[in-house]
Specification:
The protein is an all-alpha fold. 76% of the residues lie in helices and 0% in strands. The chain is built from 18 helices and no strands. The radius of gyration is 21 Å and the shape is globular. The N terminus and C terminus are likely disordered.
């Protein structure tokens, strides 16, 4: 039974007109965690495709931009902070919407494990505590603290979170450009060797998709953004354009400086920690390590922001228990959703760190598959969502979505045979658990209104 207090809490709204184009763009870029993403994924990408890594990064942006245009079209019609969930729910029904929403949430839960582990390891390395950096217990403890701290910042208001992101993003971008300039200078050339790695092109594209993931956070804060039907799309497209240039430049410089072999050898680790001291010296290496730490922390916060809003949206439409729709009176942020997601992330992170020998590699692969699945679902939803309202916008509502969907179908089908069993097991468990949870929930009774 819903109490009066619960009803009032669910009726509150998120803070309107709190974000402009600049802060929305900063959230989209920060959610992709450029320094962190490059640190944990470039080695894997180079191992898969060798010196073609910069080209793969550029090509992978094409389906990502197509999906961004799908988000733009749906957001114009319905600027809902749950993004993919309400759109697929309207197109395909509550059952499919629930599973897509669950896929989104679990992708974020898994990536939190990467973010927290990288942040804890880099903190210890930065402080010269190498023994602690290699200790699973120490990683689990400090990573858990980081999750709680960033959840507090996310809970205390969207404006605080946005300005925090702008400051942290500036630090990491400056450090990345410094690395690239020095790498090209030391290499003495812009040309690349001819090693093609393992030739796993589909898996390479899948890893590249992981690097871009995060731009959709600009849409997740649409209810708090000025001009919510238009600004999030512009912010997301700017974020993607910025990331393409940054990723290609940094990957190119790393290969030119280190070569394919050394980068592929550290595919299960992060290449910045291995290369930074030799390239930039002790002080420069610490700055770059600090940038990756900042990036991981920033993305921890910007992962909490959109996921809490997805859970809030799902609760509004009875796909999650009603308590998840509660909004803080003081801060106008999701209250129960923020803390439940933070708590679930903390538990899964500690469990993975204490039991898995390949947290980074397995989680990157699993998250890439999950993200591709919900991007695919969103693209397919567009023509269905707009059934009967396609005339005059055939390009935006049919052609672009079908191209985006086809791109991700091809990548997923080809990558399944290449990605390995670890990530696929994680994905399988995630989907089974999601199905059990989603379909065990009692659907709303006939005639019950949705908020």
């Amino acid at each position: 039974m819903t109490t009066t207090a619960d009803s009032r809490s669910r009726g509150r709204s998120l803070r309107r007109d709190a974000l402009g184009l600049g802060t929305s763009t900063a959230i989209g870029i920060s959610s992709s965690a450029p320094a962190y993403s490059l640190a944990v994924a470039v080695g894997l990408l180079v191992a898969y495709v060798g010196t073609a890594a910069p080209m793969v990064l550029a090509l992978a942006a094409v389906p990502v931009v197509l999906v961004t245009l799908c988000f733009r079209e749906l957001n114009r019609a319905e600027p809902n902070c749950g993004t993919t969930f309400p759109w697929t729910e309207k197109a395909f029904g509550l059952g499919v919407g629930r599973m897509v929403g669950w896929t989104t949430v679990m992708a974020c839960v898994l990536v939190m494990s990467n973010l927290a582990q990288v942040a804890s390891i880099y903190t210890y390395v930065l402080l010269g505590l190498d023994d602690a950096a290699g200790s699973r217990g120490a990683q689990a403890g400090l990573g858990a603290v980081f999750i709680v701290v960033m959840a507090v910042l996310a809970y205390r208001g969207i404006q605080i979170a946005a300005w925090t992101q702008a400051i942290l993003l500036t630090v990491e971008v400056v450090a990345l450009l410094w690395f690239a300039i020095n790498a090209f200078h030391e290499a003495g050339t812009l040309s690349l060797p001819t090693d093609t790695g393992q030739g796993k092109w589909a898996t390479g594209v899948l890893v590249a998709v992981f690097l871009y993931w995060g731009w959709d956070s600009s849409f997740s804060v649409n209810e708090e953004t000025r001009d919510p039907r238009r600004t999030p799309a512009i912010a997301a497209l700017i974020a993607n354009g910025f990331l393409v240039i940054l990723y290609v430049v940094v990957a190119w410089s790393a290969i030119a400086y280190a070569g394919v072999g050394p980068l592929a050898d550290i595919a299960d680790d992060d290449f910045f920690s291995v290369l930074s001291n030799d390239l930039l010296g002790t002080a420069g290496g610490k700055l770059l390590i600090g940038a990756v730490l900042v990036s991981a922390l920033a993305s921890t916060q910007t992962t909490i922001l959109p996921t809490a809003r997805t859970m809030l949206s799902m609760a509004r439409r009875d796909a999650f228990p009603g308590q998840f729709a509660r909004i803080s009176t003081r801060f106008h942020t999701p209250s129960v959703s923020t803390w439940v997601f933070a708590g679930a992330s903390l538990v899964i992170y500690v469990a993975l760190v204490l039991t898995s020998d390949a947290v980074l590699a397995d989680a990157v692969g699993a998250v890439s598959v999950l993200v591709s699945i919900y991007y695919l679902a969103t693209a397919i939803a567009v023509p269905v969502y707009f059934t009967g309202a396609i005339e005059g916008r055939v390009l935006q509502r049919v052609v672009v979505p079908l191209l985006a969907a086809a791109s991700f179908v091809v990548v997923l089908v080809l990558a399944v045979s290449e990605v390995g069993t670890g990530p696929l097991v994680v994905v399988g468990v995630t989907m089974v658990v999601g199905a059990l949870i989603m379909f065990s929930m009692k659907p709303p009774a006939e005639g019950e209104g949705r908020s």
